[in-house]
Amino acid sequence: MLKGRVRTVLSLGVLVCLTLAMTGCWDRKEIENRGFVLGVAIDHVTTPEPKGQYDLPHVTQEFGERKYRVTFELPRFRKGEEKGTSGTESHYIFNGEGESMFQIVRSVSAKTYFSFFFEDTQVLIFSEEVAKEGIREILDYFLRNPGMRRKVKVFVTPGRAEEILNGKLTVEEVNSIFIARITQNADAIPRFAVISTLGDAAEAIQGNHSFVISKIVMENGDVKLTSAALLDTQGKMVGSLDEREVAGGKIIRQKLKGGAFSIPNPANPEKLAVFEVVEGKFSVNSHIDGDRLWFTVEAELAGNLGENTETGQKALDPDFLAAVEKNMAAEFTAMALDAYYKQQALKADALDLGSLVHRQYPKYWEIVKDRWDEEVFPTVPMEVHIKVIVRRAGMMS
Amino acid sequence: MNTDNKKTIVERIRSLKSLIQHARVIEDDTQVVARSLAEQYVFPEVYQLEASLAKNMQHMKDILSDSYDFHFREFLIASLNRQGAVVFIEGMTNLELINMQVIEKLMLPPVPGMELSPQDEMFSYLKDTVLSVASISKLDVMDEAVKRLLSGDTLLFVDGINWLIVIESRKMEARAISEPETETNVRGPREGFVETLQTNITLLRRRIKNPNLITKKVVIGVRSETDVAVVYFRGIADAKVIHAVEQRLKKIAIDIPTGIGMLQGMMEDHPYSPFPTMLATERPDKVVSSLAEGKVAVIMDGAPFVLLAPTTLSDFFQTSDDYNEKWAISSINRLTRHVSSLFAIATPAIFVAITTYHPGMLPMLLAVNIANTRIGIPFPAFLEAIVMIILLEVLQEAGLRLPKSIGPAVSIVGGLVIGEATVRAGLVSAPMVIVIAFTAIASFNIANYRLNLIVRLYRIPVMILGATLGMFGVMLGYMFLIAHLSMIESFGVPFMEPMIQKSFKQFSDIKDTFIVAPPSVMDERPEYLGPEDAKRQKE
Amino acid sequence: MNPFPRISQWQLLTLCFIAAFGDSMATLPRSVGEIAKEDMWLSVIFGGVLFLFTVWTAITLASYYPNSTCIEYHQILLGPLLGQILNAVMIVLLLLVPILSIRSFVVALKIYLLDVTPTFVIVLSLLTFITYSAQYGLLPVIRVLQFTFMSIHSFFFIVVLLGLFSIKASHFQPFLAQGIMPVLKGAIPSWYSYTGPEFVVCLLYPFFIQKNKVLTYGFVSVLVLTAVYTLITGIVQGILGVAETTRMLVPTIIAYRGVEIPDTFIERLDGYFFSMWIPVLMVCMLLWVYLAVFGIKQMARLEYSRPVVILVCSLILYFVVAIPNLQTASTISEWANYALLAWGMGVLPLLLALAWWKHRR
């Protein structure tokens, strides 16, 4: 047979390979057996007693109450050409009620053969009640475990979060995917907040500043992204910002890139003039004089005249355009200041102003950073100077 | 009484029959024994050349026994007034030459004035005046004489002399020079090597008319006495390599080499490795360009392939088309070949690893799409892939062995029908079929057939690694391959050499590995071959 | 097995780069960011500059004994007994780094790619590769390194560069807010990332072809290393910001998880980053193990590498699996960091001074 040395080497090699084959492939899981969790919704448990005869949503946990009701939406894999419609035919819904996210996820696995896979999650929805209590604790599971990406979009909804995932939409897609895709319009419509992702939320919580999450509502099969929820440094929702304040906030955060705004037409106050923002240049600075701190916001917004409903007025009349510009600037200033005062009132700085001070005056920031949101921020004045330029007035005069 | 008689008659007949059968068996056995006693292995060197013609003829008959293609022709040599005999093998000799130039000339009376005088030496007399053949020599060893006889030469025995004359008279049937089957190309020459050693060397000499092209003959095979030629360019090829090739050839102690593959296996540096360290080619133009670079060629009689030494990995990706087309197009083709080889090894493994271990690496819609196609498939992805690869291998072998008229039909049947049918039946998912089909096509893109085989061989271990350890396993497989390739050397040259530069000045070797440089830039011989004369073009 | 291989400058460059660039890029931003906060990229540059000094020391020391490896000239400088003790210490250091690096790599691998696979299997397969490659001598190892450098490292670099899509400039400010001291202090944990070239130089010096160019190429490789590390740290800092970087265990992977190239389907780069990182690490560990084997061979005057390689790899396997938990591993790596720092900034200059004094007379 083979010579001695060759034989030993070969047998060693075979032994090694056999050990690999004997114990099996540990991590292998067929792709159709993975449960791609596309959306997660978190509510409070309305009635903490057992549901149904066997209480299926119950989660076994050694310590912790039956506090949160978590809903997972998974796509229903369907072979062949029929894509199906939205609603129960295109997704699976699983529920679990407990306190620890980790244990909820694990115990929901007792109901299905899917192994939950969070890398493709698109949306994470909280109900307003949960947000008011604070989302920081809930986010710990999602940040600590390597499943979720940081680009998952986070939402708050006034009603029950699970209904957003449960409901039947008029479009033929899995709810979570559809919702996530709506956010692609974000740049053109400033009414809802800058879409905040899990990464933004995590960064804000770690960095100890407040942040906003956009709100979402669903009714009769229609989904709409509306205003924004304001959360403080602990992750607790302290209030809402309506759409106008959100737009104003975007000016201060230097993110206003597009959108249509209407003002009373200077020629005829009962009609409208609509301005569409195309380009924005912003400069937000903090100034310190001794102990006093104030902010200045300077912006130059350029765009087009989108709509002029006073048809008698010639749109290219320079006086008219100057008046439009002036009134628009006043409107923007008012929006920005309203947003600022609202947040000061709510004692939550979601406008990145704290980090601005940190960047520009780090020594001052060291002194005030622990008291920023509650004490210092509500007292700081802001000056806003906005200039609006109308570049074009469209195709007709 | 009758029945008793009957019984005994039947019994007797039976016993007689068995006796006859036994007798027949014994007869066969005795005949076998007799034959084995009569036919023993003959060592020609045992026999001595004698001075008597009759004795020599008897020796020849003993050595060559009853093979019917040996012919003996005895006649009277007029000029010497002795008996002579001519021995030759029919089929290997030029009968016309023997008839006209040997037998006729010997049987004719000598030209007056040119008779043999007592002080003339007989051999030079015959050589100078009688035999009008081109190549003639004198031998006095039986061993050598028999070898020459079996190579197609004619032996001339003269009565009373203990040496013989060997006349070269070879004429054999051989295949005509035709297009090489395994290496096809678009724009290059269509001549391929044939099985005759001399024709092959002629094909080379026609292209290089330089006296520095040296051909040295080595005889391999104790019992087959196969001719092997070592061809190199004196003054260009590295002397170390030439020496190594000749030494290794001389060390081969086999009785009958069955083909060039066996020769290669006994000469190579790493016979256990799946990678060949000598390149076998069927094309004369490839051999010519390799000789010009400084390589050494080994040609064996009876095999249409020529071995080139030393070889590196980049040689397997070069085809002669690269140098006949424009350089930009050839560069892209060559890059495609390299990338295809990578795909051909790794694609099934990566697909299995990503879909079963790391579906997060796929975009979400793709992942959902693949998952949709896999609903209801009874096998795990790994098993699917193995089944498809086995099917692929079977189809490839089948297409190779079948006669030309059915071959393509089998591939079409196999590919389209079976693939389509399995998907429709729900046994295999569609993405897997696509992956395997792509792998197969990528492996056909590799220029060299041997590398193709290696790729097919290595695909399965990498897939097993990928299916047990995910992407980590695939990378492990890749690194094992690299480690193995880095370890191999071919006649002193590392196998990976032009792809891995030893120093900065070797960077110029890249111009022939991954890309093909314009001809005016390729003015040096590759550094790694250590040529004696490095410049190819004058400035 | 060529007893006297020749190493060219290009190979020297590759060796020095790969010896250092292995496992630490994953945790470098965290260890530096904890001290230097927003200026972590400056700390990394400073660490590189500091390391240049060590490389210079090592090369100058080796040039006093151009035909011996450091195993030999340690014994010449310090006497046989003390020299052997120093050699043993060096071998222990050379073995400690692979143990720690492999362990931290396997931890990251288990978190992100393979969850349930036992550590033992992963480490065993890694070490099988290293055993197979290291047993044939120096030149095959160098070839593996060179080929990997050209193929994998270039793709790796492209993936790293793709992270530039997601950086936010505001994460880099304020600049030098806390002054220069944290920057300098932050350079200390980065030493573990840079260590490698000094051992390559001192062990393989006799084999270099052009000894007068070794200094230049050594410096070039350290500069390239510094540039790459700064780039990676900068990108991670730009994507995640300081607070997150210091909280994550393996910030580099998390940062690349969030990179999305706009308008393409490439959504998460961390899978590709990790896949490319696997061979980068394997090759780096191969070099370290080979250096340790080489040192042992020289110390014990052995001829063949194969038995030593098998012994060394079994040792490494045992120790990697034997480290029980995360705290032990981080304590040991802190000690290792200080030990390597002491070697580079303490022992080597002392030896250099000793050699200079001996040669002055």
Structure description:
The complex is a heterotrimer of chains A (397), B (539) and C (361). Chain A has 397 residues and is an alpha/beta fold. Helices cover 31% and strands 29% of the residues of chain A. Chain A contains 12 helices and 14 strands. Chain A has helices at 4-23, 101-108, 128-133, 136-144, 161-166, 175-182, 198-206, 243-252, 318-346, 353-360, 362-368, 372-376; strands spanning 34-36, 39-44, 68-75, 91-98, 115-117, 123-127, 153-157, 211-219, 222-231, 237-241, 259-264, 272-289, 292-308, 382-392. In chain A, a hairpin with a 7-residue loop joins strand 11 and strand 12. The longest helix of chain A is centred in the C-terminal third of the chain and has 29 residues, at 318-346. Chain B folds into 3 domains: 46-167, no CATH class; 197-311, no CATH class; 326-494, no CATH class. In chain B, the strands form 3 sheets. In chain B, strands 1-2-4-5-3 form a 5-stranded antiparallel β-sheet, sandwiched between helices. In chain B, strands 6-7-9-10-8 form a 5-stranded antiparallel β-sheet, with helices on both faces. In chain B, helix 11 (327-356) packs antiparallel against helix 15, helix 11 packs across helix 16 and helix 13 packs across helix 16. The longest helix of chain B is centred in the C-terminal third of the chain and has 39 residues, at 449-487. With 361 residues, chain C is mainly α. Chain C contains 16 helices and no strands. The longest helix of chain C is centred in the last third of the chain and has 35 residues, at 326-360. The model of chain C has no long low-confidence stretch (mean pLDDT 87).
